[in-house]
Amino acid sequence: MSDNCCADACGTGDALNDKRWRRILWIALVLNAAMFFIEMGAGIQADSRALQADALDFFGDAANYAISLGVAGMALAWRSRAALFKGATILLFGLWVMGSAIWAFFNGTSPVAETMGIVGTLALFVNVGVALMLFRYRTGDANMRSVWICSRNDAISNVAVIAAALGVAGTGSAWPDLGVAGIMAGLAITGGIQIILQARSELTSVKNRELSVGEVG
């Protein structure tokens, strides 16, 4: 009994074919797609780089959840390749955010703090809810772990957006907004690297196993 519970809690065994896992991903996919449109519109209206960056993160996560649904139940090699692709997109997102923050430093204006705070709080509720649903799968393979890392990083980013809104309101400066954009870039870059490293390790393990089987045969 305890062994079965451990397998389910860790996202191993039959978890990849678990209806609950797939249902959670569908819920996360719909929520992230909706938040992309909400947050992008608010970010443009408020001239907030942090909100726009977070909106693109929602878009990327929606795409990542769709990929995870497509490879769930497939062989480890295919799941690892999907995770490798997701890790690369997360890394590119981080680099984009960093470039956007640098551009805004020279060309941006002070964002609307009220809009940042309201939309940032809504995004936080969404991401915390998704992260809680995915918590039991946080130690699975690279594909499962990538989904958990995305949700965890998003919740942390939302707290930073809310803090930036308070900073903008208190100082009337764009610095807090740009600082959050930098934090989000760092989270995306480190998260992407973690996923890529684990996915490559899994692919190497699969390749070595295949070679061992071939030599035995």
Automatic annotation (TrEMBL):
Record localization: Membrane
Transmembrane feature ranges: 24-46, 58-78, 90-106, 118-135, 155-175, 181-199
GO terms, molecular function: monoatomic cation transmembrane transporter activity
Keyword Manganese: no
Membrane association type: Multi-pass membrane protein
Span of domain Cation efflux protein transmembrane: 25-203
Pfam families (UniProt xref): Cation_efflux
A Gene Ontology cellular-component term: membrane
Keyword terms of this UniProt record: Membrane, Transmembrane, Transmembrane helix
Coiled coil: none
Protein name (record): Co/Zn/Cd efflux system component
